[in-house]
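Hi R.,

As promised on Friday, here is the backbone we talked about, encoded as structure tokens. Could you run it through your design pipeline when you get a chance and send me back a sequence?
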């Protein structure tokens, strides 16, 4: 199925990312704006566009959190996750290279929410 791009991989990532809009994980305008900065089949521009969107939206979340707006921060940080996921998948499967992350740490960026205060409960076991 073609969605924005002729390239199947790019089309899939744009459609997958847009599909999270109804759950608050994306904003269709942000997806379309990001896609407008990607050249057909151009992996470098795809990576850069998704990464830039993720960084911009994460900054919105960080600023909201700094101002005490936890709900707005949570919503923005959730929206920032999907472009981070889309960025590395369009680089020919070269997973050895740390791409698609805000700081170059690759998969270690998936612990970003913990930096903003939402930590899993580890001190108490689950009830039996």
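Update: got your reply. Pasting your designed sequence below so it's all in one thread:
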């Amino acid at each position: 199925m073609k969605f924005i791009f002729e390239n199947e991989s790019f089309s899939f990532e744009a459609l997958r990312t847009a599909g999270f809009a109804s759950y608050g994980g994306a904003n269709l305008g942000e997806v379309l704006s990001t896609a407008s900065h990607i050249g057909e089949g151009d992996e470098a521009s795809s990576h850069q566009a998704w990464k830039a969107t993720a960084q911009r939206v994460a900054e919105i979340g960080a600023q909201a959190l700094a101002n005490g707006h936890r709900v707005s921060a949570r919503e923005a940080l959730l929206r920032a996750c999907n472009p981070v996921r889309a960025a590395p998948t369009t680089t020919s499967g070269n997973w050895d290279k740390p791409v698609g992350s805000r700081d170059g740490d690759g998969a270690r960026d998936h612990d970003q929410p913990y930096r903003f205060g939402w930590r899993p409960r580890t001190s108490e076991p689950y009830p039996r």
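One thing I noticed while checking it: The chain has one domain: 8-115.

Thanks again,
M.
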